[in-house]
Amino acid sequence: MLTESRVVRRDLTSSFGTAAGVAERVPATVRLRVYDLDGDEVTPLAGAAVYLWHCDREGRYSMYDDEIADENYLRGVQEADADGSLTFTTIFPACYSGRWPHMHFEVYESLAKATGADNKLRTSQLALPEDACDDVYATEGYEQSVSNLSRLSIETDGIFSDGYSLQMAEVTGSVEDGYTVSLNIPV
């Protein structure tokens, strides 16, 4: 995916190339800030690149789940500005069986390294807070997420169970206006 010419994009809601799918959704804007944390000093990583991907509202991943294997939506790369910040337009992901609601990301030193899938600095996930999930999952299309979320906690999630304080995103907004998901990423 990372070597595809149109993977560098802000809006992840639509597929590109020969695929034409669009992810149905509650809209979300993901704002990330990448920085180097050396002791007490915080230095923005200008020019760093982030590859972000996540499931759709049914809990499926484009390119992998059979029903949407030919799609490539909800995946993309952005380059950080001088402040180490970058933004994606996407949707609020589902809660699928056995996993707390999350988004995956990889951080690269540069856009060239990201689009060459070369030498990632960090691979991680951001977690979504339960109150925002409850609001989103009460909307049409997310019905299975209600059941899935009720059967787990972030503390029992296989990835977040060892601690999630640096991975828990701040989420603001509403179903009607869309959500903003924010996370600072130390590298």
Structural description of this entry:
The chain is mainly beta and 187 residues long. It has a single domain, classed as Aromatic compound dioxygenase (Protocatechuate 3,4-Dioxygenase, subunit A, Sandwich). It is built from three helices and nine strands, in the order ββββββαβααββ. The protein has helices at residues 111-115, 130-137, 143-150, and strands spanning 27-38, 41-44, 49-53, 75-79, 85-91, 102-108, 120-127, 170-174, 178-186. Strands 1, 2, 5, 8 and 9 form a five-stranded mixed beta sheet that branches. The protein has a four-stranded antiparallel beta sheet with strand order 4-3-6-7. β1 and β2 (41-44) form a beta hairpin. The longest helix is centred in the C-terminal third of the chain and has 8 residues, at 130-137. The relative contact order is 0.22. The model has no long low-confidence stretch (mean pLDDT 94).
Query: Can you tell me the CATH topology?
Result: Protocatechuate 3,4-Dioxygenase, subunit A
Shape: globular
Range of helix content? 10-25%
Q: What is the domain total for the residues?
A: 1
Provide the CATH superfamily. Answer: Aromatic compound dioxygenase
Radius of gyration: 16 Å
How are the SSEs placed, and which strands pair?
Layout: E1 27-38, E2 41-44, E3 49-53, E4 75-79, E5 85-91, E6 102-108, H1 111-115, E7 120-127, H2 130-137, H3 143-150, E8 170-174, E9 178-186
Task: Please outline what is shown here.
The protein is mainly beta. It has 3 helices and 9 strands.
Supply database-style keywords.
187 residues; Protocatechuate 3,4-Dioxygenase, subunit A; mainly beta; 3 helices; five-stranded mixed beta sheet
